[in-house]
Specification:
The protein is mostly beta strands. The protein is 4% helix and 39% strand. It has 3 domains: 2-163, Jelly Rolls, CATH 2.60.120; 177-322, RlpA-like domain (Barwin-like endoglucanases, Beta Barrel); 327-395, Roll (SH3 type barrels). The radius of gyration is 21 Å and the shape is globular.
Length: 406
C-alpha cells in the first residue's frame, strides 16, 4: 500500500502512483534491507525537471512552468529515479510512506520496479501493488505534477518496505504479446520525452499511453517491435515517452493488471474504443474528445525511416518486455542499425534496430564477417522472422552465441 503523511500546510491529497528509477545496471546498495528510505538528495542525468530545495531539503520541481511537450498548456511535471536497492529477502511487493506538501492542483506518485535478470525488469508498478514475480532488488520512481504554473509540490521523504503477498496475476509469457493498433507520428522535435530525452529530427523511439513501460534515459529496458501490417518493414525501438491520449492505459495487460479501462478487451487501447465505438463518451481519461484511435506514437525516424510510412495507420506491435528468452541491447555510435533478411551485409534491408533497443535473440547463424561495436565476428542473431543483425552490435554479455543455432 501507499500511506500518505501530509507535511506542513498540505491542502490537497497526494496521489501515489509512480516513481522514477536510476539507469538499468546501476550498482545496488551494499546493505540489503527490506525497509529503507529513498535518497531524494541526488539528482542526476536520468532525472527530469526536479531539484532539491535550498534549506528545507525537499524534492520539488525545478521549473514550475515546464512540461515535456506542447500537449500540456499549463503546470509542470518532473521525476526522480533512485539508485537500485538490494532486498535482504526476495519480495513481490514494495509499499511506500510518502511525506509531502501538495498544494491544490498538485500531486505526487510513487512507482517501483524489480529486476528479474541481468537487464530485465518488471513493468513500473504503483507502490503497494504486487509484482508479477519475486524480485531481489528494486528501483523507485517519484513523479511530481502540477496543473498550475508556478505551483509546486514538494516531497520530504519516501519510506519504503518490501514484503511478499499472494499473487493474483501473471504477465510474463514465453512469447511476447503482439497487437494490431493504430500508429501516429510523434513529431514534436525539440520537445522532451517522459524520460528526459530531447527529441531530435528523425528520432528513434516509441510512446505508449502508460508510464509502466517507460525506459530510463539512455536505456531500452522496454522495447517494442513495430511492423507494417504486411510485415515488409519493422523497427525495434525503445519506449521513452507517454501517450498518445491517455497516460494510464497499459492496454496490452490483462484486466487484472491494467491500470484503467479494465472492461475493455486486452489489446484494445482506450482511444481506439472511444473513437470507433464511442466508449467513455468518446473521451480520454482527461476529458478530451479523442480524434483518432491511436495506441502508439512513433518518433519521426521510426515512422519515416524504419517503417517507410507516409501517413498514420495501423501497425503490428510486439511488446518485447512481456516475453522471455535471451536478449541483447543494440549499441551503435548513435544511428540505428540495419536489420537484414539474412546473415549478409548485401541482404535486403527489412527495417531498423534503434540504438539502446533491447531485442530478443531467437537463434543464431554464421554469415558475413562484420566489425562492429564489440569487435569482429561472423555471428548473426535472428531477432524476428527473416530479421537478422550482426552480433557485433549487440551487448549480450558474451563473445559466444547466447541462443541456439537456427
Amino acid at each position: 500500500m501507499i500511506r500518505i503523511k501530509k507535511a506542513g500546510r498540505v491542502t490537497a491529497a497526494v496521489l501515489a502512483a509512480g516513481a522514477v528509477t536510476a539507469l538499468a545496471g546501476a550498482p545496488a546498495q551494499a546493505a540489503a534491507t527490506t525497509s529503507w528510505t529513498a535518497d531524494l538528495s541526488t539528482v542526476d542525468t536520468d532525472d527530469v525537471n526536479v531539484n532539491v530545495a535550498a534549506g528545507g531539503g525537499a524534492l520539488t520541481l525545478a521549473d514550475a512552468a515546464w512540461h515535456r511537450t506542447a500537449r500540456v498548456v499549463a503546470g509542470s511535471e518532473g521525476s526522480l529515479i533512485t539508485a537500485e536497492h538490494a532486498l535482504a529477502t526476495p519480495a513481490n511487493r514494495v509499499s511506500a510512506d510518502l511525506t509531502a506538501d501538495a498544494p491544490k492542483g498538485t500531486s505526487v506518485e510513487v512507482d517501483v520496479r524489480g529486476r528479474t535478470g541481468a537487464d530485465d525488469w518488471t513493468e513500473w508498478t504503483p507502490a503497494g501493488t504486487t509484482f508479477t514475480t519475486t524480485v531481489s532488488s528494486v528501483q523507485v520512481r517519484v513523479s511530481l505534477h502540477s496543473t498550475t504554473d508556478g505551483v509546486r509540490p514538494s516531497v520530504r521523504g519516501v519510506a519504503l518496505s518490501a514484503d511478499s503477498a499472494p499473487r493474483v496475476n501473471a504477465l510474463v509469457a514465453t512469447t511476447p504479446l503482439t497487437y494490431k493498433v493504430y500508429g501516429t507520428r510523434e513529431g514534436l522535435v525539440g520537445g522532451t520525452t517522459a524520460n528526459g530525452h530531447k527529441i531530435v529530427s528523425h528520432d528513434h523511439f516509441v510512446s505508449f499511453p502508460s508510464g509502466k513501460s517507460v525506459s530510463p534515459k539512455g536505456t531500452g529496458n522496454y522495447t517494442a517491435k513495430v511492423c507494417r501490417t504486411d510485415g515488409s518493414k519493422c523497427e525495434y525501438a525503445p519506449v521513452w515517452e507517454v501517450g498518445p491520449w491517455n497516460e494510464r492505459d497499459d492496454y496490452w495487460n490483462p484486466a487484472s493488471v491494467r491500470s484503467e479501462f479494465k472492461d475493455l478487451p486486452q489489446g484494445t487501447p482506450e482511444a481506439q474504443a472511444a473513437y470507433l465505438q464511442g466508449y467513455n463518451g468518446k473521451k480520454d481519461d482527461s476529458g478530451r474528445t479523442v480524434q483518432n484511435p491511436a495506441g502508439i506514437d512513433l518518433a519521426d525516424g521510426v515512422f519515416w525511416d524504419g517503417l517507410g510510412m507516409s501517413d498514420n495507420g495501423y501497425v503490428n506491435v510486439t511488446y518485447l518486455w512481456t516475453g522471455t528468452g535471451p536478449t541483447g541491447t543494440v549499441k551503435t555510435a548513435g544511428d540505428p542499425m540495419n536489420v537484414r533478411a539474412s546473415a549478409s551485409t548485401s541482404a535486403a534491408i527489412k527495417g531498423l534496430a534503434a540504438n539502446y533497443a533491447k531485442v530478443t535473440i531467437e537463434c543464431y547463424v554464421r554469415g558475413d564477417s562484420v566489425t562492429g561495436t564489440f569487435g569482429t565476428s561472423t555471428i548473426w542473431d535472428r531477432i524476428g522472422p527473416n530479421n537478422y543483425v550482426s552480433d557485433t552490435y549487440l551487448q549480450t554479455g558474451s563473445d559466444e552465441p547466447i541462443a541456439p543455432l537456427c
